[in-house]
Specification:
- The complex is a heterotetramer.
- By secondary structure, chain A is mostly helical.
- Chain A is 66% helix and 0% strand.
- Chain A is built from 16 helices and no strands.
- By secondary structure, chain B is an all-alpha fold.
- Helix content of chain B is 83%, strand content 0%.
- Chain B has helices at 2-26, 31-52, 60-84.
- Chain C is mostly helical.
- Chain C has one domain (3-191): Cytochrome c oxidase, subunit III, four-helix bundle (Four Helix Bundle (Hemerythrin (Met), subunit A)).
- Chain C has helices at 3-8, 13-43, 45-52, 57-82, 86-116, 125-156, 166-191.
- In chain C, helix 4 runs antiparallel to helix 5 and helix 5 packs antiparallel against helix 6 (125-156).
- Classes of the chains: A mainly alpha, B mainly alpha, C mainly alpha, D alpha+beta.
- Chains in contact: A-B, A-C, A-D, B-C.
- Chains A and D meet through helix 3, helix 8, helix 9, helix 10 and helix 11 of A and helix 1, helix 2, strand 7 and strand 9 of D.
- The complex binds heme-A (2 copies), dinuclear copper ion (CUA) and copper (II) ion.
C-alpha cells in the first residue's frame, strides 16, 4: 500500500467547505441530495397517508397540493437529477479515467455552492409554499402564490449548478484521460455520464429562460404565456418539456452506466456489445431532444405535431432495449454472485423494463389520451425513476461504498432492506397502473370511492418501502464506523478506481496509470476467447 | 501585424454590412426583407466567428463544440413550430 | 502564416472546450427567446410590423457599430497579449470597456424614451420580447464588463504574458458571443419586426 | 382499461373499444418482451449463480454477436412502427368531426364545469346526452387550464383559456358516467367532477321538454335568475348549497350568520357583506380558507349580483 494519505484524512469544517477535491465535493453532494431523498420520501408518505381515505381527511386539499408539489420538485430537482451525476459522477469520473481531478476543480466547488444557495432560496419560499405541481404550468403558476418567483429563482441557481457540473465533466472526459485510455477503453459509466452531461448542458438553459420568463410574466406582465395578452400557455409547456423530457434521461443514463459496470464484474464476464451500449447512450441523449411533445398530446397541441412526436418517441425504446438485451446477454454463462450491488442491478433491470414498457402506452396517441395524467402515468414514472434510477443508484452505492468510505457494508442487513424495498415498491406502485386504467386522475386530494381499495393497498406498500429504506440508510450510517475495513478491491473489479487504496488517496494516483486494455477482460485468462 | 490588419478588414466589412442591412430595411421587399436581413446577419456572425473567435484556426474538436449546439437551437424552434404552425 | 502555431499560442484546449461549452448553454438560453420570437412573429405579423416602427432604427444601428467596434478592440487585445504586448492589451480591454459602457448608455436612452412614450414590457408581445431580449442581452454586457474590469486589474498587476493569458482569451470569446447575439437581435427587433 | 369487461358489452362511446384494442395490442407486444427479458434475466441469474464463497467459475470470453444485435435492433423497430401506426389511426378516428353533431358549449372555471345547450339552457356539473346522437363539445376555460376527462369514453382533452378546443362524442350506451378534471387547476381540482347522463332518445326528448317548461315557469324572478347565474358563473365549483364544505365555505345559511374572519374579527353576513365577498373576495377572508376566490367585479353586473344575493338568501 502507498503511504499517501487518504482523502478523508484531513478533518474539520474548513477542510470540507473549501475543498477542491472532486471526491470530497462528490461526498458533499451525496449527503445533500440524499437528505432531500429522505425528506421527499417522507412527504410521499404523508401523501399516501391522506389517500388512505377517499374523502376529506387528515389535512386540507391545499396542503395535499403543496405536499405533492414539494415532493415532486424536491425529488426531481434536488435529488434525482444531481444524485448520480454530481455525487457518484464527481467522485468516480476522474478515478475511472485515470485523472487526478476534474478539469476545473474551482468551478466544481462553485457549482456545489450554487446548488446549496439554490436550495436555500427555495427553502425561503416555504413561508408561503407553492402548490403548482412540479410542472409549473401557466397560467396557474403565473397567478399562484408570490413564492413562485422565489422558487423559480432558486431553481435557476440549481440549474446553473447542473450546467456547470455537466460542462466540467465533458471537458474532463475529453482532456484528462490517462495515457492509453482511448474512447473504446472507457468504462461504460463514463459513456453514460458523457451523454448525461451533454443533455445537462444543452437542455438546462432552456428551463432557465423558462423560469426567467415566468418571473417576467409575474413581475412585469410580459404576456408570453398569457392568452389574455395574445400569448400562448402551450409555449410554456413546449419550453418546459424541451428541458424536462431530456432530463428524464439525465436521470436514467448514469444509472444505466452503473449497471454496465456492476453486471460484468459480478458475472465475471466481459460486457456484451460494448460499442452498442456506448453509442446507445449517445443515441438516447440525442433522441431525447426530439420527443418532448409526447407530454402534450391532449394539451391542445396540433394533431400533426402529436403524430410527429409520437413517432419519434418510440425510437428511444430501440437503444434502450439494446442495452437491456446486452446486459442480459452478459449474464449468459457467467459465474454470478448475488452480492448486494448485483441484486440491486438485477432489480433495476427488472423494474425498469416495467417502467419502460408502460412508456409505450403513453407514447401511443390513442392510449395516451386515456391514461394521460392518471395514476397510470404516476406508476410509469415511479417505475422508471424510483424503480430505475434509484435502484441503479442503490446498486452504485453498495458497489462503491467500500471505495468511498473504506468500510464494507453489512451484507445481511443490505439483503433485508432489499426484500422490503422490492416488495414494498411493487405493492405501492403496481396498483397505480390499475387505478390509472380505471381512470383515477393524478393530483387528486380526494377521489371517488370506487378507487378506495387499491389506494389502501398502495399506502400499505409505502410503509413497507419506508421500513426498507430506513434499514438501508441505517446500514449505511452504521457501517461508517462499524463496518469491516475494506480492501482496495473487494469485488475484484478491473476498473481503475479499484487499483488504488480504499478510500483513495487525495491525489488519486501516485503515478498516473498507463492503460493497455479495456476494463472488461473478466475471464480472459481463464476462459476461452470465443467470439472476440 | 498581419492579424491586426485582418481584424480591421473584418471590422470594416462588418460595418459595411450593418450599413447595408439598415439601408435595405428602408426598402419594402415584402417577405424578402426578413430573408435579406437574416442572410446579412448570418454573414456577419460567420465573420465574427471565423476571425474574431479564431474558429478559422481552431482544432476540429472545438469547431465541433461551436457548431453542434446550433442543431439544438434549430430543434427547439422547429419542434415548437411543428405545433404552432399546424394548429 | 502558420496557422497551427497561432492556435498553439492560445488558451489550453481544456479552457477552450470549456468556454465553448458554456457558450452553447448561452445559445440555448437565448434560444428560448428566439423560439418565442419566431412563434409570435409568425402568429402576429401585423403587430410586429406596426410596433417595430416605434423603435429608433438609427440608435440601434449606432449601437451595433459600437458593439462591433468593441469586438475589434477585444480581438486586438488578445492578439496583442499573444505576442506579449501588455500595454496594447490593456488599451484594448479598456477601450472595449468604454464601448460597452457606451452601448449601455445608448440602450438606457432608448429605454427611457420608450418608457416616456408609454411603452412597457407589458404593453404588447412585441415590446415584451424587445425588453426581455435586450434586457437579458444587457445583463450579459454588464457581466462581461465586470469580468473585463477584473482583467484590467489583473493586467495592471502584470498577471498576463505571451505564455499565460487564458482568462483574456476566454473573456474575449464570451464578449464576441455577446456581440453575436446582438448581431441577430438588431435586425430581428429593429429592422424586420 | 381498460376495464376488460367493457369488451363484452356495448362500448360506451365511439372508439372506446378501439382504444382498448390498441391497448391490448401494445400489451401483447409488451408482454412478449416482458416475458422474454424477465424470463431470461431470472433464468440466467439462477442457472449461473455462484454459491457464496466459491471462487468464480470459468466463464467464456464473449464480447458480442453481430447477428443477434441486428435482430434486437430491427425487430423492435418494426414492432414499434406498428404500434405507432395503430395508435395514430385510432387517435385520428377519435378526433374526427362527426357530421350532424349538436354543439354544446363547455366552460371550465375553478372548479366547476358548465354546459350550455344551443337553446341557452345551462347546467353546472351535469351533462345530458341522448344515446346515438353525436355532440361536439366546444370548450374553453375562464381561468387556468383544465382537462375534460371521461374515462369510460377513453376521451380526454385539455381546456384552455383564450381558446377553443373540441371533443366529439357519440354516446352508445345508456347510463351515467363520470367526468373528471384531469389537469391540475388548484385546490378544488379533485372535486371538479361532473356527471354525464346518457338517456334513450325518447327519454332525452322528454327530459328536454320538461326542462324547457321548468325554465319558462320559473320566469324571471330574481331568485331564479340568481340561481341561473350562480350555476353559470361557477360559484358551485367552490361553494356547496347543502352545508358541506368544499374549497370555499358552504353558502347554506350564511345570510344573517356571524362569520369569523382569518384575522379573528367577527362580522355579520348582511347584503353588503355578501356583495363585498363577491366583488372583493380577498378583503375579508373567512377563517380556515385560502384567499383564492376570484373577483367577479368585472364579470357580473350590479343587478346580477343582487340576483345572486337574493338567491343566497333563500339557502337556509
Ligand atoms: C427516469 C425517468 C424516465 C424514463 C427513463 C422514461 C422513459 C420513457 N418514457 Fe416517461 N416519463 C417520466 C420519466 C421517465 N420516462 C416522467 C417523470 C414522466 C411524467 C412527468 C409528469 O407529467 O409529471 C413521464 C411521462 C411520459 C410520457 C407522457 C405521458 C403523459 O403525460 O400523458 C410519455 C409519453 O410518451 C412517456 C414515454 C416514455 C418512453 C417511451 C420511455 C422510453 O425511454 C422507455 C424505453 C424502454 C423500454 C421500451 C423498455 C425496455 C425495452 C425493451 C425490453 C426492448 C423491446 C421493447 C419493445 C420493442 C416494445 N413518459
Ligand atoms: C425521484 C423521483 C421520485 C421518487 C423517488 C418518488 C418516490 C415516491 N413517490 Fe413520488 N412523485 C415524483 C417523483 C418521485 N417520487 C414526482 C415528480 C411526482 C409528481 C408530482 C406532481 O404531480 O407535481 C410524484 C408524485 C407522487 C404521487 C402522486 C401524487 C398525486 O398525483 O396526487 C404519489 C402518490 O402516491 C407519490 C408517491 C411516492 C412514494 C410512496 C414514493 C416512495 O418511493 C418514497 C420512498 C421513500 C421513503 C419512504 C423515505 C423514507 C424515509 C423516512 C421515513 C425517514 C424520514 C426522514 C426525514 C424526514 C429526514 N409520488
Ligand atoms: Cu379543473 Cu383540475
Ligand atoms: Cu417524456
Amino acid at each position: 500500500m502507498s503511504q499517501t494519505e487518504s482523502y478523508l484524512a484531513h478533518k474539520g469544517f474548513k477542510s470540507w467547505a473549501l475543498t477542491m477535491d472532486h471526491k470530497r465535493i462528490g461526498v458533499m453532494y451525496l449527503v445533500t441530495t440524499h437528505l432531500f431523498f429522505l425528506i421527499g420520501g417522507f412527504l410521499a408518505l404523508l401523501l399516501r397517508l391522506k389517500l388512505l381515505s377517499p374523502g376529506p381527511a387528515l389535512f386540507s386539499a391545499h396542503t395535499y397540493d403543496v405536499l405533492f408539489t414539494m415532493h415532486g420538485a424536491m425529488m426531481i430537482f434536488l435529488f434525482i437529477i444531481p444524485a448520480i451525476p454530481s455525487s457518484l459522477g464527481n467522485f468516480f469520473i476522474p478515478l475511472l479515467i485515470g485523472a487526478r481531478d476534474v478539469a476545473f476543480p474551482k468551478l466544481n466547488l462553485f457549482s456545489y455552492y450554487l446548488f446549496v444557495s439554490g436550495i436555500l432560496v427555495i427553502l425561503i419560499s416555504l413561508v408561503q409554499p407553492i402548490d403548482t405541481g412540479w410542472t409549473f404550468y401557466t397560467p396557474f403558476s403565473a397567478e399562484n402564490s408570490a413564492a413562485v418567483t422565489t422558487v423559480s429563482f432558486g431553481l435557476f441557481l440549481v440549474g446553473m449548478s447542473s450546467i456547470l457540473t455537466g460542462l466540467n465533466f465533458i471537458v474532463t472526459i475529453h482532456t484528462l484521460r490517462a495515457p492509453g485510455m482511448t474512447w473504446y477503453r472507457l468504462p461504460l459509466f463514463i459513456w453514460g455520464m458523457y451523454g448525461t452531461s451533454v443533455i445537462q448542458v444543452l437542455s438546462t438553459p432552456v428551463i432557465g429562460i423558462t423560469f426567467l420568463l415566468l418571473v417576467a410574466e409575474r413581475l412585469f406582465g410580459v404576456g408570453f404565456f398569457d392568452p389574455a395578452k395574445g400569448g400562448d400557455p402551450l409555449l410554456f409547456q413546449h419550453f418546459f418539456w424541451f428541458y424536462s423530457h431530456p432530463v428524464v434521461y439525465v436521470m436514467i443514463l448514469p444509472a444505466m452506466g452503473i449497471i454496465s459496470e456492476v453486471i460484468p464484474c459480478f458475472a465475471r464476464k466481459p460486457i456484451f456489445g460494448y460499442k452498442a451500449i456506448a453509442y446507445s447512450a449517445l443515441a438516447i441523449a440525442f433522441i431525447s431532444f426530439l420527443v418532448w411533445g409526447h407530454h402534450m398530446f391532449v394539451s391542445g397541441m396540433s394533431t400533426t405535431a402529436g403524430v410527429i412526436f409520437s413517432f419519434l418517441t418510440f425510437f428511444v425504446a430501440v437503444p434502450t432495449g439494446m442495452k437491456i438485451f446486452n446486459w442480459i446477454a452478459t449474464l449468459y454463462k457467467g459465474s454470478i454472485s448475488l452480492d448486494s450491488p448485483m441484486l440491486w442491478a438485477l432489480t433495476f433491470i427488472f423494474l425498469f423494463i416495467i417502467g419502460g414498457l408502460t412508456g409505450l402506452f403513453l407514447g401511443s396517441l390513442a392510449t395516451d389520451v386515456h391514461v394521460h395524467d392518471t395514476y397510470f402515468l404516476v406508476a410509469h414514472f415511479h417505475y422508471t425513476m424510483m424503480g430505475g434510477t434509484v435502484m441503479g443508484l442503490f446498486s452504485g452505492l453498495h458497489y462503491w461504498y467500500p471505495k468511498i468510505t473504506g468500510r464494507m457494508l453489512d451484507e445481511r442487513w443490505a439483503k433485508h432492506a432489499w426484500w422490503m424495498i422490492v416488495v414494498g415498491f411493487n405493492v405501492t406502485f403496481f396498483p397505480m397502473f390499475i387505478l390509472g386504467m380505471q381512470g383515477m386522475p393524478r393530483r387528486y386530494a380526494e377521489y371517488p370511492a370506487k378507487y378506495h381499495s387499491l389506494n389502501v393497498l398502495a399506502t400499505v406498500g409505502s410503509w413497507l418501502l419506508a421500513v426498507g429504506i430506513v434499514i438501508m440508510f441505517a446500514n449505511f450510517i452504521r457501517s461508517l464506523n462499524r463496518g469491516a475495513i475494506a480492501p482496495a478491491n473487494p469485488w475484484e473489479a478491473l476498473t481503475l478506481e479499484w487499483q488504488v487504496p480504499s478510500p483513495p488517496p487525495e491525489e488519486n494516483f501516485e503515478v498516473i496509470p498507463t492503460v493497455t486494455d479495456w476494463p472488461y477482460s473478466y475471464g480472459k485468462e481463464t476462459g476461452d476467447t470465443r467470439g472476440k | 501585424m498581419a492579424y491586426y490588419k485582418s481584424y480591421v478588414m473584418v471590422w470594416i466589412a462588418l460595418i459595411v454590412l450593418t450599413g447595408a442591412t439598415v439601408g435595405v430595411s428602408f426598402l419594402n421587399l415584402g417577405l424578402w426583407n426578413a430573408a435579406v436581413a437574416l442572410v446579412i446577419a448570418s454573414t456577419k456572425a460567420t465573420l465574427v466567428g471565423l476571425y474574431f473567435m479564431h474558429l478559422r484556426h481552431e482544432i476540429k474538436l472545438v469547431i465541433g463544440f461551436a457548431l453542434f449546439p446550433l442543431l439544438f437551437l434549430a430543434l427547439i424552434i422547429i419542434g415548437t413550430l411543428s405545433d404552432t404552425m399546424t394548429r | 502564416m502558420a496557422s497551427k502555431e497561432k492556435a498553439g499560442k492560445g488558451a489550453p484546449v481544456a479552457a477552450r472546450l470549456g468556454i465553448w461549452t458554456f457558450l452553447a448553454t448561452e445559445l440555448l438560453l437565448f434560444g428560448g427567446l428566439f423560439t418565442a420570437y419566431t412563434v409570435f412573429r409568425i402568429t402576429y405579423p401585423d403587430l410586429f410590423h406596426q410596433e417595430h416602427l416605434k423603435l429608433n432604427r438609427l440608435l440601434g444601428a449606432l449601437n451595433t457599430v459600437v458593439l462591433l467596434t468593441s469586438s475589434l478592440s477585444m480581438a486586438v487585445a488578445i492578439a496583442a497579449i499573444r505576442q506579449g504586448k501588455k500595454r496594447l492589451m490593456q488599451a484594448g480591454i479598456v477601450l472595449t470597456l468604454v464601448l460597452a459602457a457606451a452601448f449601455l448608455a445608448i440602450k438606457y436612452m432608448e429605454w427611457t424614451e420608450d418608457f416616456a412614450r408609454g411603452l412597457y414590457p407589458g404593453s404588447n408581445l412585441f415590446f415584451g420580447l424587445y425588453f426581455v431580449m435586450t434586457g437579458l442581452h444587457g445583463l450579459h454586457v454588464i457581466f462581461g464588463m465586470c469580468v473585463m474590469l477584473y482583467l484590467v486589474v489583473q493586467g495592471q498587476r502584470n498577471r498576463f504574458s505571451a505564455d499565460y493569458h487564458t482568462p483574456v482569451e476566454i473573456t474575449g470569446l464570451y464578449w464576441h458571443f455577446v456581440d453575436l447575439v446582438w448581431i441577430y437581435l438588431f435586425p430581428l427587433l429593429y429592422l424586420i419586426g | 382499461m381498460p376495464d376488460l369487461t367493457a369488451l363484452q358489452g356495448t362500448e360506451a362511446s365511439l372508439a372506446s373499444h378501439d382504444v382498448d384494442a390498441v391497448f391490448i395490442f401494445i400489451l401483447v407486444i409488451a408482454a412478449f418482451f416482458f416475458v422474454l427479458t424477465q424470463g431470461l434475466l431470472i433464468y440466467f441469474a439462477v442457472r449461473y449463480r455462484r454459491k457464496k464463497g466459491e471462487p468464480p467459475a470459468k466463464t467464456p470470453y464473449i464480447t458480442g454477436k453481430q447477428w443477434l444485435e441486428v435482430v434486437w435492433i430491427v425487430l423492435p423497430s418494426l414492432l414499434l412502427v406498428g404500434i405507432f401506426a395503430y395508435g395514430v389511426i385510432i387517435f385520428v378516428k377519435m378526433r374526427t368531426p362527426i357530421p350532424g353533431a349538436t354543439d354544446v358549449q363547455v366552460t371550465a372555471s375553478q372548479f366547476q364545469w358548465s354546459f350550455k345547450y344551443p337553446d341557452g339552457r345551462t347546467y353546472s356539473n351535469e351533462l345530458h346526452l341522448a344515446v346515438g346522437k353525436p355532440v361536439k363539445l366546444i370548450m374553453t376555460s375562464r381561468d387556468v387550464i383544465h382537462g375534460l376527462f371521461i374515462p369510460d369514453y377513453r376521451q380526454k382533452q385539455d381546456v384552455l383559456p383564450g381558446r377553443y378546443t373540441y371533443l366529439w362524442l357519440l354516446p352508445k350506451r345508456i347510463g351515467t358516467f363520470d367526468i373528471y378534471c384531469s389537469q391540475y387547476c388548484g385546490t378544488g381540482h379533485s372535486l371538479m367532477r361532473a356527471t354525464l347522463t346518457v338517456m334513450g332518445q325518447n327519454d332525452y326528448l322528454a327530459w328536454e321538454q320538461s326542462e324547457k317548461q321548468k325554465q319558462q315557469s320559473a320566469g324571471a324572478s330574481p331568485k331564479a335568475k340568481g340561481k341561473a347565474l350562480f350555476d353559470s358563473s361557477g360559484c358551485g365549483g367552490c361553494h356547496s348549497i347543502d352545508g358541506s364544505a368544499k374549497v370555499g365555505p358552504t353558502l347554506k345559511g350564511v345570510f344573517g350568520s356571524t362569520v369569523t374572519l382569518a384575522d379573528g374579527k367577527q362580522v355579520k353576513a348582511d347584503e353588503e357583506y355578501l356583495r363585498e365577498s363577491i366583488t372583493e373576495p380577498n378583503e375579508q377572508v373567512v377563517k380556515g380558507f385560502q384567499p383564492i376566490m376570484p373577483t367577479f367585479k368585472s364579470t357580473l353586473k350590479d343587478d346580477d349580483i343582487a340576483a345572486i344575493i337574493a338567491y343566497i338568501k333563500t339557502l337556509k
